[in-house]
Amino acid sequence: MASARIVIVKSRLLAGLRAALGDRHVTTDPERLASVEVDWTRRFRGRALALVRPGTTDEVVATVRACADARIPLVPQGGNTGLVGGGVPHEAVVLSTARLTAVEPATVDGQVTVGAGTTLASVQEHARMAGWAFGVDFAARDSATIGGMVATNAGGVNVLRYGAMRQQVVGLEAVLADGSVISRTSGLLKDNTGYDLAGLLVGSEGTLGVVTRARLRLVPPLPRRAVALLALTDASAAVTLAAELRRRLPSLLAAELFTDAGLRLVLDHARLAPPFATHAPVYLLVECGETEQDPSDSLAAALDAAGFDGDALLEADADARERLWQYRERHTEAINAEGVPHKLDVTLPLDRLAAFLGRVEGVVDAAAPGTRTYLFGHVGDGNVHVNLVGPSSEDEAADDAVLRLVLELGGSISAEHGIGRAKARWLAADRGRPDLAAMRAIKRALDPDGILNPGVLFG
Ligand code: 2HG
Ligand code: ZN
Hints:
The chain has 16 helices and 16 strands. The protein is of the alpha+beta class. Helix 13 (350-367) runs antiparallel to helix 14. The structure holds (2R)-2-hydroxypentanedioic acid (2HG) and zinc ion.
């Protein structure tokens, strides 16, 4: 009886969705569903009941209402580049933002309003064409979308200069679980009118509303660039040098770390030539940007003043800079080619980061001997991506050991990827009971039937 009722509910839901969005934009074809049922790492898999592609905010409203009426969960999905299983459906309808790509021209005060499905690369290009730049950048720029970046409060390589996604959002439009639309996209920089609803949605991982449009701040372009790749004897030296450069170089845009294990994987996978004649244990990649003047001299002078005297490559030419960035940016794909990774995206207070980097491999090895550990990330802001290859997708012994160490050292279990399903079990240990109770109360108030992305954040 129960299953017969479910079949009726689902077919009514599909009929309602087709009526609202048109047949072309509602699919249950298993081949089309396959790509939205698994995340980019292949670690998280689920099952979608349907894939819908609304083209307007009104169609998102209709989708949310239809799912709410049928009590069927809804999972928003952008570029499906998330790394914590936050966009993987479990017997849910997947709402793709692929058609929500309208862009309003940049305003004189340097803001742009874009649909949730606009890719990061496309926002960067719109900003460039308007004589501005966008303050967030990372390797998945061609696929990652603004809606997903807002929902996860994405970070990337320029956080030390411009902050994460939260700092770029001037206003949002979003559809709540009851189908109402909250919208504040007039772009006022000063606007103290009660609760910051946009702020609440940033980092909410699709659990409070479906982001449909975002008004983003742009930053002045810094076309003159210099990138240095530096070989270092250990992680502690890299952390110290990155901190020194932050203090000495107002033009610093990025300070990224990787180790020799990751570099060797990248060289192999991407068929790149090694940067130096001899390998070093740790590498630091830094980028500076200026409006008029080539920042190479000030970068070289800051390295001297900081006492750095190891192997270094310093490039100002665009192609050569790009070649240096490849050593860092191609880590994620090289690791994915090695196996299905466990990804632990963590932040440490800067004064504990070196201790963490010194201890983490030992902790992993004790918990899951034979695991290959790759450490890289945004050392300038304390964010390390601990990638583990070896343990099966379900075996979380090493993950737990790493997250325990993070909390022992006063860090956060999620820096920029979110909690998703991967770390839901750990949220209480990080945030504590009062925080979690407040978060649950907000969730209950805005989505009492648990329609939006259930299982994410709270488990
Ligand atoms: C990066 O910094 C991304 O490249 C991905 O945040 C990190 O693959 C990862 O673990
Ligand atoms: Zn990152």
